[in-house]
Amino acid sequence: MTNRFSLAHLTTLGCTPPEMTYLAARAGYDFVSLRPIYMGLPGEPNYALAENKQMMRETKDALAETGVKLLDIELARICDDVDPKEYVPAMEVAAELGGRHVLSSIWTNDRNLYIERFIELCELAKPFGLTIELEYVPIASVTNLAETLDVLRVANQKNAGLMIDIHHFHRAGDKIEDLDRVPREWFRFLHLCDAPAKIPASKEEMIKILREERLYIGEGCIDIASIVERIPEIPYSIELPHNKRAQELGYEEHARRCLQTAKAYFEAYSFQKR
Question: Which of 5, 22, 93, 240 is deepest in the core (most CB within 10 A)?
Fold first, then answer.
């Protein structure tokens, strides 16, 4: 089995998409996972490639020159005040760059609304040959595996899938054996990182860790091996932001260590895929 790895943009968020692509190539990644949907979060750069034509050209050139592929784009959030049609320009960008998937998560408590908008998002993605991968986030509205599977089953869209972030899986308190009841075709890629065993009691601390202090693979206490062995062979996108390490080492060396520790961890285990 040859493992394939993607560099998720949150790991090196200070790098523009073209800079990140060259960096990923030098560090040994197979893919990049870009963030061209601007969410207006505090301190987060705007990499909306649909609006920045120069950066779009540079990103396209970087992918062509390096041979690194675009795995997915993010984040198509489902919210009360966002029309899914607003994501169409980013879908066009993903398709032009050869991307495969659009990552989504749900941030409204209105179940009827989020089911309706998730279906619409899937329908919008179909003409571009893209899938919509639903990620649950403990600080969002759909917060665990069971709730996510409910959305996918009710929506019943062929281009919809499940994206497990190992950090969120652990923080949600999900059980590893529950992965066995997920249809195999719903798995298309996975977010990889590690974290301490203790789950933060406050939302603020949870956000701080998931945005700034995730750990290298094998450095924390998540049972990554047991999760991975229950999932088909798919690309692993390393989403591992750690602000202090990125500042001390530089983004490239941090990204390289993310990949090195992931490969070392995988080599230490013999995964029996189910």
Answer: 240
